[in-house]
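Task: sequence in, structure out. Protein: N-acetyltransferase domain-containing protein.
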Amino acid sequence: MFTIRPYRAEDVKDCSRCFYEDFFTCPIDGNDRGFLRDYVQILIEKCSFTYVAETSDHQVVGFICGIYDKKFHPKKSDFDRCKKHYGAWCRMFLKFYLGQYRLSEAFQKQLDDFLLQLREREEKYFDSCDLELAALSSGKDYRKGLGTVLVSKFMDRAEADRASTVRLLTNTLATWKFYEKRGFIKKAEKPFPDGSGRIRTENAYL
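Result:
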């Protein structure tokens, strides 16, 4: 049903749409979409590899990213790391902090909550790993087996690179159950201090 392949630069628009569908619920306008496109490009370029899932009519409906620990050296060559555009990184962050994206009020509110969770995620209170599942976005096809094929591809890559430990963070019980069925074990659990009542769960695949 889905074909999994390495990410290409022209996929960024579709990946930003998938990212929006997976993490946000509010309506968005053109300015919000522009920010999401820039943000997802930077997210993907930060990672060590990214795979996308596409349908038979070549529509990208999901993507998954992984990032190696700096001390870990994978067996295979890093041939599919996408080209870096550091100038674009700088322009994006400068534009964001100067408020030049002119984000809608509803999207700005959800984005602030999302970024707060990311800052929380950077706290070092769990063991190091070889490889981190840095982003999984499967859009509206999540319940149709898309999440399964994306994670399977990710774990195949981890095995090929001889990564013995993989970690990820989730913030919903449903997502945790998904990973638990695939061999992940819970290492720690901590509530977000943003008042949302959500729980951040850290997991490691051994």
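The mean pLDDT is 83.
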